[in-house]
Amino acid sequence: MLEALTFDFFRNALYAGLLASLICGVIGSLVVVNRVVFLAGGIAHASYGGVGLAFYFGLPVLPVTAGFSTLSAMAMAAVTLTSRERADTVIGVLWAAGMALGIILIDMTPGYNADLMSYLFGSILAVPDSDLWLMAVLCAAVLLLVALFSRGLLAMSFDADFARSRGVPVRFLHFLLMGMIALCVVMVIRVVGLILVIALLTIPPFIAERRAHSLPGMMLMAAVLSAVFCTVGLYLSYTLDLSCGATIIAVACVGFVTALAVPRRRVPEPPGGTDGPARAGHQSVEDGVA
Amino acid sequence: MDTPAIEISDMWFAYDGARVLDQVNLTLPAGDFLAVLGPNGGGKSTLLRLLLGLLKPGGGVIRVLGLPPGQAGGRIGFLPQFTEVSANFPITVLGAVQTGLVEPGLSCLRSPAKRRRERELALDALSRVGLAGHAERRLSDLSGGQRQRVFIARALVSRPELLLLDEPTASVDGRSRQELMQLLSDINHDMTIVMVSHDMSTVDGCVKSIACVNRTLHHHMDSRLTPLIFAQATGADLMAGCPVELLAHGTVPHRVVLDHGDPDCCGGRHSQDAARDDGAGEGEDGHA
Fold first, then answer.
1. H/E/C letters for each residue in B131-188?
2. N or C, which terminus of chain B has less Cβ within 10 Å?
3. In this complex, which of B90, B128, B132 lies closest to A218 when CB atoms are compared?
4. Number of folded domains in chain A?
5. Minimal Cα–Cα distance from A175 to chain B, Å?
6. What is the distance of C-alpha B128 from the center of its chain?
7. Under an 8 A CB cutoff, do A289 and B127 touch?
8. Which of the four pLDDT bands, split at 50, 70 and 90, describes residue B247?
């Protein structure tokens, strides 16, 4: 590992992995607790349409893809808000349509032999410094936004109806969340690929969800876990000469299974309250009233 | 306290052109404990969402604590229908209760003093529902009945004047249900309560008046269950059959049903029981 770190490309790969871990830990936690994993997958796949558009019209890839993904994310957000029961179908359609659009447009682009594979698996070993900076800025922006709206996001994620009844602008926060997912997905896909994005958005937050005692705690735990998965995965892929993205995912999956097997530490029920919620309840209620 | 907690006049509401609620009139004095009964799809939850301002009425007037719905935000406590949404959510009991103090808008940053104050309020609300020792536990480690009391604490934590509860006893076992009703009865000393329920057994004892909602609303100033209430609440045709069968599925003894003067019903036995317990079948009183 230490000798590998002398290579620029490997150092950049590690930085990219760590930045992606931080972003995915925060956004992935929101994705998982809001149960929009399918929607995040839809955004990630549909964004390929943006890649196709950029190549076909000879436009800069990153802004076009970001714009296209944000638009498709807003469309999906609108559908989930207005007709919840139809949402998964519509997301499925957008998912496939975006992907197909991208492939057709790249087929029609003369002289470019697009590699779908690099979109799927990324090119973490070829991350330029400029992309690292972009990711760092995005990371800072996401952390700032999430911190700023943390209370509303927590209230919405926990119980949207209740949050709405308290006057929290749930609609705005929903669109904000979708926008953040879109931007993160686009940025991180460039580096680690579509499949690793989905893995990092779901596996570490899932492990963290069962153990954390707060939403920020879950985000931190998920970010640390995915940083560990990325580091170990990169190291193994280097020593065993395997594909980076796939190795990282394999490590994450081992972590996932291990986490399922290891029992969760629970805060024990307070003494005396072992089963009488009843008696305990009445006691203090009377105290409270008196 | 002189303003009625809720005033509704000639209100209607439609989903896609079909009127779910029509000609709804209600004046609920402060301090009341109203049970809203009715068949599924009869508009009970819709009525609650209208009161909260989550839905806008098609016509008519709604006043909650003297204000249009949605404007008395901080003075209303709300318990949404029990869902499994929060089953794995990473949150402590205390954290869950504190979400009841979230303010309207996007206000986000809190001073340390405010944090401490909110923590105290939340601990206070938890001891009120008898869960003081559970503050640091994960919400998902609690039993269904305990969790429901956490949500009641969340509704109480802002010290509201009006408590709106949507099916508070759904997915709660029989014993927890009784505890919950006892708790609500105590809370009712301090605030007006409106409780939507399809569970007739909750009505016994604690509530002060009953509203039957099935497209329109009938307010009964009395909390005794009558055959008329049954018919309105279940959507059954009053003449079509005896409601005792419905009631007998629960833990409530048959005798709470007043006689409805139909000797052919239930083979006569139930009506005899009922007749022995109370006088003639009334039920028209308080009927708007």
1. CHHHCCCEHHHCCHHHHHHHHHHHHHCCCCCEEEEECCCCCCCHHHHHHHHHHHHHHC
2. N
3. B90
4. 1
5. 14
6. 19
7. no
8. very low
Decide if B261 touches A, using CB distance below 8 A: no
Structural contact between residues A216 and A6, judged by C-beta atoms closer than 8 angstroms:
no
Check residue A168 and give left, alpha or beta (phi > 0: left; psi -120 to 50: alpha). beta
Chain segment A234-255, per-residue pLDDT in tens = 999 989 998 888 899 999 999 9
- Output phi, psi for B84, to 5 deg: -90, 5
B182 touches chain A (CB under 8 A): yes
User: Does the CA dihedral A218-A219-A224-A230 come out positive or negative?
Assistant: positive
Q: Looking at domain B6-223, does it have CATH number 2.60.40.420?
A: no
Whether A209 sits inside 8 A of B88 (CB atoms) is yes
Q: What is the pTM of this model?
A: 0.80
Q: With an 8 Å Cβ cutoff, is B133 touching chain A?
A: yes
Residue of A nearest to B151 (CA): A162
Q: In terms of residue numbers, what domain contains A237?
A: 4-260
Residue whose token pair is 């638009």 = A71
Within-domain flag for A219: yes
Convert the pLDDT of each residue in A81-121 to its tens digit: 887 778 888 899 999 999 999 989 988 888 765 567 777 77
Residues B32-60 have a mean pLDDT of 87
Q: Is residue A286 part of a domain?
A: no
Q: Give the residue extent of every domain in chain B.
A: 6-223, 224-288
Query: Alpha helices, DSSP H only, in chain A?
Result: 8-33, 37-56, 61-82, 84-108, 116-121, 129-148, 150-158, 160-165, 170-192, 194-211, 215-240, 244-261, 277-289
Cβ-based contacts of A273 with chain B (< 8 Å): 133-134
CATH number assigned to the domain comprising residue A26:
1.10.3470.10
A280 contacts in B (CB within 8 Å)?
Answer: 130-131, 133
What letter does residue B66 receive in the DSSP assignment? T
Helices and strands, counts by H and E, chain B? 8, 9
Per-residue pLDDT of B23-42, as tens digits, reads: 888 999 999 999 888 887 78
